[in-house]
Amino acid sequence: MPTRRTIVQGAGAGLLLSPLPFRRVRAGTDVLRLSLGSPMPQAHPATTSLVEALDAIRTESDGRVDITLYPDSQLGSELSMQSQLRSGAIAFTLTSASSLQTLAPLAGIPGVAYAFSGYVPLWAALDSGPLSERIRDALAKFRLKAFRLVDNGFRDVITSVRPIETVSDLQGLKIRVPPSPLLTSLFRALGAAPTTINLAETYAALQTRVADGMENSLPQIEATRVYEVQKYLSRTGHSWDGLWILAHGRTWDALPADARALIARHFDAAVERQRQAFVQMNTQAEARLGAKGLAVNRPDLAPFRAALDRAGYYAEWKGRFGAEVWGALERYTGPLGA
Description:
The protein is an alpha/beta fold. It has one domain: D-Maltodextrin-Binding Protein, domain 2 (3-Layer(aba) Sandwich). The chain is 45% helix and 22% strand. The chain has 14 helices and eleven strands. Strands 1, 2, 3, 4, 5, 6, 7, 8, 9, 10 and 11 form an eleven-stranded mixed beta sheet that branches. The longest helix is centred in the last third of the chain and has 35 residues, at 257-291. It starts with a strand and ends in a 5-residue tail after the last helix.
């Protein structure tokens, strides 16, 4: 009788793999047990789409490839999970482009304020082409394998103190942001007081007025239920954020080729499902949030972009990213800044 073995990842050690190819794994000799950490709540379409993908991977491999998802920051903050991923303590993570900027600065460039006019130029820029290649190369330097981005939407402001009708309404506002230099810079340039708070702790921070508000996409606002402790939703659409599915490079490279193909195929399908579900959820979310008691307003966005330009926001980030990369971005966005 063959002996069934469980092959797991070890902290800092990557994955201890059998030399057997995946077709032998499918025959019942080995089990690959891997972990995927995520900051996203249970109700977020990124979570539900990944659950479907992991179930399909488990089923198609007869249980020999078993990836466990830990959502809702169960494994720690995004920065903590990025550290765990780099050490090999976990095999995969879902992490926002905005927070990933603290590790690989170029990863945050899709979040430049008021850059993309919609999803057509956005996905053209991020799924392939020169900008996508430069971001993936930047992540590869940290031995991270990047799959496609799931959508976390164009971001709006929700507050407990006042609606954001003009730039002056942001003056001194204590607003929760993820650990993103771009978002921190954006709100400082507009006169607000941004503060970094772990997503899982944001509800309590808003409830106790540690922060006056937060900024995020409508599906994320719904999933975190922060509308229960806020009053005003302002459709500022100031930035877009997505979530990279990342693998620990050495773990990924050591997996049997058939296992890599199976995982990659279902991750790709999960991204397609998530993007479609997110757009549908986002389209309906404003009405649902309004029905929950939020006062919704749509400010004129031109003054916000002009204020950022006057404050030197675009010039600063063009200098920090470099003219070549900025040109790759403007290929899809048009000119940014004066």
